[in-house]
Design brief:
- This protein is 53% helix and 0% strand.
- The protein contains four helices and no strands.
- By secondary structure, it is mostly helical.
- α1 packs across α2.
């Protein structure tokens, strides 16, 4: 399972309680799929699952708007 699939599964199953499936390009914040509390839960999941520290300054719309954006952010962090 790749990073995007892991994120899709977590968001759909945990944050949305299975109410809907999300896609890599869905605007998680603009379409109000998740709220600010969901973002914080997502950041905690990302830190735990991918063993990385996400500084407060990196918790931005640019990095967490879509699953693709999160995947790109994580790829850059691992360089």
């Amino acid at each position: 399972m790749d990073t995007q699939d892991i994120l899709k599964q977590y968001i759909s199953q945990t944050l949305l309680n299975g109410r809907m499936q999300v896609e890599a390009d869905d605007d998680l914040l603009g379409e109000e799929i998740i709220d600010s509390m969901g973002v914080m839960q997502l950041v905690a999941f990302v830190e735990d699952k991918f063993s990385c520290d996400v500084p407060q300054s990196d918790i931005t719309i640019t990095h967490f708007r879509t699953i693709k954006a999160i995947d790109t952010y994580l790829a850059k962090r691992s360089l």
